[in-house]
Design brief:
This protein is α+β, with helices and mostly antiparallel strands. It folds into two domains: 32-366, no CATH class; 369-475, Immunoglobulin-like, CATH 2.60.40.10. Helices cover 43% and strands 18% of the residues. The protein has 18 helices and 16 strands. It has helices at residues 9-13, 39-57, 90-111, 114-119, 121-137, 140-148, 153-178, 184-192, 198-218, 220-226, 229-232, 248-251, 263-266, 276-279, 300-312, 324-329, 333-339, 343-365; strands at residues 62-63, 66-67, 69-72, 77-80, 83-85, 243-246, 319-322, 369-375, 382-383, 389-399, 405-412, 418-419, 424-427, 432-441, 449-459, 466-475. The strands form five sheets. Strands 8, 9, 10, 12 and 14 form a five-stranded antiparallel sheet that branches. It has a four-stranded antiparallel sheet with strand order 13-11-15-16, with no helix packed on it. A three-stranded antiparallel sheet has the order 3-4-5, with no helix packed on it. The longest helix has 26 residues, at 153-178.
């Protein structure tokens, strides 16, 4: 007979520990956010409008009879207004990423998760999807009643309408994303004709599905469990970082009371325990429990708490943007702002300013001409007519301007070195042209072996557009 795993009374009497089942899965309840109006809500929607006008509108802008911003991967050219960049300009992408990272560190050290609360795509699209949800299904209580109600045609109609709007918006988002890599007007014509290529179709639906899933269903799960920023933000926070804080000394002990009641006589603080700060939170946390990594710093709880304080006749600011030192010491806003200029912030600002200046100067001084020199491996060196030694090179000339250019090619480095092929070449706008170049050296002008030389390529119309590339001339034995 197999002994039972359940502890028997005799086991308990002998002092043996009872078995306890521990679940490693934590179920989460659905979050129904309540609509809120206030200063920070207006700022959040202003950023929603700004970011989406840029995202959806930028591909439709024209510059020099072409799309203003286009990352043409097929031809390996990247157009950003007046700039034409090539893969060789990867250093600028590196600079942009470094600037973005340092800016994130700086903003976080000063004022917490500003990026998360106001400009992160996850926050922005979740805000848009929740707005659609509010318009179709109603506010928080109406949505909760709808979800708990039995199946009906009215419920099916509301749910279907919401998801149809979500899908349409998501596909539009995916279409716009692909429009940054394929000319968007061409993409629109192909879409209307149902002639999209396989990769274009895949990315439109893939990005659309990601938007639909993240903003429609996963929402706070992305911020709480998938985004790494929530985990390492504490390394950038200190006690002088502006964060959303609850004034515990003023608010506790919390409790319900009538509007006319004196909270001091009841032994209560300013918090009326309405839980509205929890109901409006997009990640479903209670800010009254203190700083939590799930808080994205959106300020929705500040707006709703200020509204409640105004209604009950208490001073605003029970929940506010403050610092831990500011709350503990009762500092004014001016005192907290002065503490913002601390060594960490100054270091971030200094490094960020230097890198921005370096990238800006580099872009300003950038020569819109790229040249690669490749030796012809089919004939390293050979003797031609009259005993001249000839080396053959292949030049790849990249015209990073949107006008046709004529370039003059010269060779230097050895006495008597001369160009035996055409000294001038025409390159079309933003074209990469490859051509074979023959370089000759008179007999006896140099000993056998390798000798340094260089190519000089200069625009015939603008001497400032000038590039020099090193090479090696081989003299056979």
């Amino acid at each position: 007979m197999t002994p039972s795993s359940d502890p028997s009374p005799s086991d308990a009497s002998r002092g043996q520990p009872e078995e306890v089942l521990v679940s490693l899965y934590q179920s989460s309840q659905a979050i129904y956010t309540k609509a809120v109006n206030g200063l920070f809500s207006k700022w959040r929607w202003a950023l929603v409008w700004l970011t989406q006008l840029v995202y959806y509108g930028l591909p439709w802008l024209e510059w020099n009879a072409r799309q203003a911003v286009l990352f043409d991967l097929e031809s390996r050219r990247f157009f950003i207004f007046g700039l034409v960049l090539y893969p060789q300009d990867f250093i600028y992408l590196t600079g942009l990423l470094v600037i973005s990272a340092l800016a994130l560190f700086l903003f976080t050290a000063v004022a917490g998760r500003l990026w998360c609360g106001y400009a992160c795509p996850q926050t922005v699209y979740t805000e848009i999807f929740m707005w659609i949800e509010h318009k179709v299904e109603g506010d928080r209580s109406a949505r909760m009643r709808l979800d708990k109600s039995a199946f009906s045609l009215a419920k099916l109609g509301r749910k279907a309408s919401k998801h149809a709007l979500w899908v349409a918006f998501s596909l539009w988002t995916g279409f716009t994303f692909v429009g940054y890599f394929t000319p968007i007007r061409e993409l629109a014509a192909l879409s209307l004709a149902a002639s999209l290529g396989p990769w274009q179709t895949f990315w439109v639906f893939f990005y659309g599905f990601a938007t639909y899933g993240n903003a429609g269903f996963m929402r706070e799960q992305v911020c709480k469990y998938m985004c790494p920023y929530a985990r390492f933000q504490s390394a950038m926070f200190d006690k002088d970082t502006m964060i959303v804080t609850y004034d515990e000394a003023r608010g506790e002990p919390r409790g319900a009371r009538s509007k006319k009641a004196d909270p001091k006589a009841l032994g209560l603080g300013s918090c009326v325990d309405c839980t509205l700060c929890v109901q409006v939170c997009p990640t479903g946390i209670d800010i009254r429990k203190g700083l939590q990594y799930e808080c994205i710093g959106c300020g929705a709880c500040i707006d709703v708490c200020d509204d409640v304080m105004e209604k009950v006749g208490y001073p605003k600011g029970l929940i506010k943007y403050s610092t831990q030192n500011g709350v503990a010491n009762g500092w004014s806003t001016a005192q907290m702002i002065r503490r913002a200029l601390r060594p960490r912030v100054l270091v971030y600002t200094g490094i960020l300013s230097i890198i921005c200046l370096a990238v800006g100067v580099s872009l300003y001084l950038r020569v819109p001409l790229k040249v690669d020199v490749i030796r012809d491996r089919g004939a390293l060196a050979r003797e031609v007519e009259q005993g001249f030694i000839e080396n053959v090179f292949r030049l790849q000339i990249m015209n990073a301007m949107e006008s046709k250019q004529r370039y003059v090619i010269r060779v230097e480095g050895l006495a008597g070195l001369q160009l035996a092929s055409e000294p001038e070449v025409d390159v079309l706008p933003t074209e990469v042209r490859s051509l074979a170049v023959r370089v000759q050296l008179p007999p006896g002008a140099a000993t056998s072996g390798s000798h340094p030389m260089k190519f000089s390529i200069q625009s015939a119309s603008d001497p400032a557009i000038h590039v020099e590339e090193k090479a090696v001339f081989l003299v056979p034995r």
